[in-house]
Amino acid sequence: MALARDSDLGAFLRASRSRLEPAEAGLAGSASGRRVPGLRREEVAVLAGVSADYYTRLEQGRERNPSAQVLDAIGRALRLSSDGRGHLFRLGGLHPRLAPDAARDRVHPKLLELLDAFPRAAAYVLGPAFDVLATNPVADTLLAPFGDERNMPRILFTHPQVKTVFAEWELLRRNTVDALRLNQGRLPDDVDISAIVAELETASPEFAELWALQGVSRLSRAYKVFVHPELGRIELTYQTFDVHDAPGQQLLVGTPEPGSRSEEAIAHLAATGLGKNGAAVCAENDHGQGAFS
């Protein structure tokens, strides 16, 4: 396992520095004459206050015990987000990792009760590999176009209906891949995550390309607009919650603005199940963050 972690850490560092332009790192005037984008190893080392040899060994997997201070300095040098820094620490073996849970696919009974507490929202529970483990009636209706398929990455990259159901499918794909990588760092031994990554790297060139970018971010607050075939626009704000009793599981809840037309549409949808066999189309996402629907 140590070799795999070393390889992952090096790949993440290389991808992160390749995305950072010299000017963004405060190295104005140093971009000329470069054959590849991003920072050089030596520049990251200078910015982080470590030797170039040490940083090179870290990228190559020959340095296996980086300190928290070193990783913090490298994270700042690479301008990593909070999610990116947490991922960097986990890859370096310095951040607590969630242990795989033998019951991870079983939704806690209290969580099922909580789903029922959102009758006029789209609420569902995701597993570590983003399998939809449980839904309330509204969410079940919105997912109906995908039939029995309940793995969101597989839906986004292989399902024939995805570009009809999600107008912002490109953004949603990218955000989902970044969140899946974050989960992989938190649950490195989860077989479901490893399996879906291996499957989609082979089945989808788009997935493989995005996965190679080493992006890391969590599912967060998102604003989305659905176009229902009969009810028209339905605007929802999504919140994502970690489930402490079930490591790796997340609860997503999409709610409409009180008093809005969308609230009336969701209420009608909840009461009638309208559109169970139809399509709900995600038309826009103003906050630029992905969330499932």
From TrEMBL:
It comes from the Bacteria. InterPro entries: Cro/C1-type_HTH, Lambda_DNA-bd_dom_sf, MLTR_LBD. Residues 38-85 form the HTH cro/C1-type domain. GO terms for molecular function: DNA binding. It holds the Pfam family HTH_31. PANTHER family: BLL4672 PROTEIN, BLL4672 PROTEIN-RELATED. This is Helix-turn-helix domain-containing protein. It comes from Herbidospora galbida.
